[in-house]
């Protein structure tokens, strides 16, 4: 595989980080910076999210430079094929080739995307494998991520969980407790790192929006977009929401979702404004000033908890029928709304009214820890040799 990356060979541990989507860049932002500080580090991007607004802009937002001094990963690996099978095959084949060539001393992945399946290559090559966001479960087999989670959890040498719920799920499956750690979510550190930029964003002026006079929408998950039944149910509910509140609903719309809307011919209410995907700082500025946020994003509960912790609560409404973040639900940080008109209207009404009355949840302790990147690099440093000795018996 053609690339220009070479290790510095400065005596530090050689760590490769594999990612392939916008959420991974966001969640790994602080960890990547910390790894570059303490390791001989290589960041590989498998380019699942190939659109500039879903990839390049985020390297720039977080000022994540590669070893060549440019914004972006060290190695860009194209993997997207004409179907899921080809894409997954490309991820496995090309990650195996790359890992075989560069032979990192540790391989780090986060979450449950198809890019995380590159972990299989690391495992087969006996490279110590570290998994952040381990143990998340929504118990819904219709979600493709649920399969990926189980695969990566089981094969990882060290699992790093956000919460005690996640750690318990792993323990219940029989995975070794001595190599499972609860680190908390990296999102608070990432949000705090960019808070000044978020607050200085002029996105409201650029989009002609006023505080508390719009609703922010993000709907992109496969189960909401690709299923005809769920798609029609959700967007019928969105139209009803626009009619009830009679204000702009700004839809940060991914290319896949936009294509689905165009192909279906579904007529959105004129008050629903379809916008290109927004950068991290702009999107969070919009979240902080929206009347409500209606989203199927996995980061919504964590963002809601963070904003609550800094005294700026948001009305967070999750348009899903399941969640892998029960700890945030338990803390009252968001409402699980479902995707029908009745469910969405009731949940949005409740979220807005509770915010206005100051009837709030409490910050989830797992989501407000700003030392996660430090924990991650220490765990990696401590366990590379342990895994090589105890698992692979290299010495």
Protein model, in words:
With 395 residues, the chain is an alpha/beta fold. The chain has two domains: 14-184 and 369-390, Glycogen Phosphorylase B (Rossmann fold); 201-367, Glycogen Phosphorylase B (Rossmann fold), CATH 3.40.50.2000. The chain has helices spanning 22-38, 56-61, 84-102, 119-124, 144-155, 164-172, 187-193, 195-200, 203-206, 222-225, 228-245, 255-264, 280-289, 300-309, 326-331, 341-357, 372-390, and strands spanning 14-19, 40-45, 75-76, 106-110, 129-134, 158-161, 180-182, 215-218, 249-252, 272-275, 292-295, 316-318, 335-336. The protein has a seven-stranded parallel β-sheet with strand order 3-2-1-4-5-6-7, with helices on both faces. The protein has a six-stranded parallel β-sheet with strand order 10-9-8-11-12-13, with helices on both faces. The longest helix is centred in the first third of the chain and has 19 residues, at 84-102. It starts with 13 loop residues before the first strand and ends in a 5-residue tail after the last helix. The model has no long low-confidence stretch (mean pLDDT 95).
């Amino acid at each position: 595989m053609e690339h220009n990356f070479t290790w510095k060979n400065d005596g530090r541990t050689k760590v490769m980080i594999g990612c392939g989507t916008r959420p991974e860049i966001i969640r790994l932002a602080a960890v990547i910076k910390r790894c570059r500080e303490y390791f001989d580090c290589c960041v590989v991007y498998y380019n699942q999210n190939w659109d500039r607004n879903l990839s390049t802009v985020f390297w720039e937002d977080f000022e994540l430079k590669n070893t060549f001094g440019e914004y972006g990963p060290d190695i860009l690996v194209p993997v997207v094929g004409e179907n899921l099978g080809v894409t997954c095959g490309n991820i496995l084949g090309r990650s195996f080739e790359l890992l075989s060539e560069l032979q990192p001393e540790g391989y780090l992945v986060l979450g449950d995307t198809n890019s995380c399946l590159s972990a299989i290559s690391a495992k087969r090559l006996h490279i110590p494998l570290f998994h952040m966001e381990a143990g998340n479960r929504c118990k819904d087999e219709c979600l493709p991520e649920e399969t990926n989670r189980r695969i990566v959890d089981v094969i990882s040498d060290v699992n790093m969980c956000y919460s005690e719920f996640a750690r318990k799920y792993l323990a219940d499956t029989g995975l070794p407790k001595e190599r499972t750690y609860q680190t908390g979510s990296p999102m608070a550190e990432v949000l705090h790192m960019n808070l000044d930029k978020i607050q200085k964003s002029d996105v409201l002026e650029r989009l002609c929006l006023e505080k508390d006079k719009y609703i922010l929408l993000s709907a992109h998950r496969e189960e909401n977009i690709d299923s005809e039944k769920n798609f029609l149910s959700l967007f019928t509910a969105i139209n009803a929401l626009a009619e009830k509140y009679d204000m702009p609903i700004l839809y940060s719309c991914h290319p896949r979702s936009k294509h689905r809307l165009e192909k279906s011919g579904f007529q959105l209410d004129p008050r629903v404004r379809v916008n290109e995907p927004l950068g991290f700082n702009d999107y969070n500025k919009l979240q902080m000033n929206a009347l409500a946020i209606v989203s199927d994003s996995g980061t919504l509960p964590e963002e809601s908890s963070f904003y609550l912790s800094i005294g700026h609560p948001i009305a967070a409404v999750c348009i899903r029928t399941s969640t892998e973040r029960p700890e945030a639900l338990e803390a009252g940080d968001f409402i699980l709304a479902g995707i029908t008109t009745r469910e969405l209207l009731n949940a949005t009404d409740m979220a807005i009214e509770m915010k206005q009355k100051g009837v709030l949840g409490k910050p989830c302790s797992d989501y407000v820890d700003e030392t996660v990147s430090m924990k991650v690099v220490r765990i990696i440093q401590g366990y590379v040799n342990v895994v090589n000795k105890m698992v692979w018996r290299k010495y």
